[in-house]
Amino acid sequence: MTFYELSVITNTGYPYYNLKLKPPPNGAKILLRFFDFTHNNSERVANLDPVSSFELNAGLVSALFEFARNIDKKIENLEFRSSKKEVLENNDWNYEGDVLITTQTEPYLLHKSVKAKMKLIYDNVIATKVPLDSALEILQNEEDTIIEILTDLEARKRIKVNENEIDRLANEFLTEMNSYGLHGICINSFDLSPITVYGNKYSLNDVDAILRNIGIFPNISPLEWIYRQSYILNEQIWVYIIKSGVGPTINGLFEPYFYLLFADPQSYLGEFPGKLTTKFNQILG
Known about the structure:
This protein has helices at 50-70, 83-89, 111-126, 140-150, 153-161, 163-177, 204-212, 272-284; strands at 3-10, 15-20, 31-38, 98-105, 182-188, 194-198, 225-232, 235-243, 249-250, 253-254, 258-263. The chain is α+β, with helices and mostly antiparallel strands. It has two domains: 3-151, Beta-Lactamase; 156-284, Beta-Lactamase (2-Layer Sandwich).
């Protein structure tokens, strides 16, 4: 589970909906991500004098630290992004209400993919509730839809249907490439959430730890791969990250799988990532 909590509020602070999926792991860093679905956001311009700006900042910081203490967490970074860039990215979106969605997630998740999930939730569940301060509560089937989106239900189903064939192929690959330093294979959703891992060395919890230690992931084109250094329990490993180019499409959103390979440092896998991608894609495509 890479999503721990999701909240839907208004930009005036009305708390409409909160979903707690799972407590975050002890000691691990998590991100609280914000997604703005408010109307005419591009037209808002703040013209605060220096004193008012400082007072607003002080109130924000104080409230955040009080919030963090109440949930037994520690805030270390607060990142802001230029609103002008956001306007350019969202200029074809026309939201009618004042909805803000926040979610607590693993830090390694790809932000654009998380954002796409939030938009899917907004379009399929939240949009019909606007205005939220007079809306009916989220129904059980609507909450089920939210959970299915967050947990990649369709991507998991496709793997489950082909489970035996993928298991056989993954084990063959691990046997074939063991002497070259390959020790694990993982299939991840389009936001990098781990779905299933093959091999005896690493568990899904290990995969979380490995991905947390990589840092920033660059954009990867379909059918291409990169590799990054990581470590787990002070053991250094190499992680090959492959964008498959195949996966389910949910309400118009294409969600391609990622394939991850865990190998010894300085291992040479040659063109094996391409071979694995071709074989896996034939099953999952």
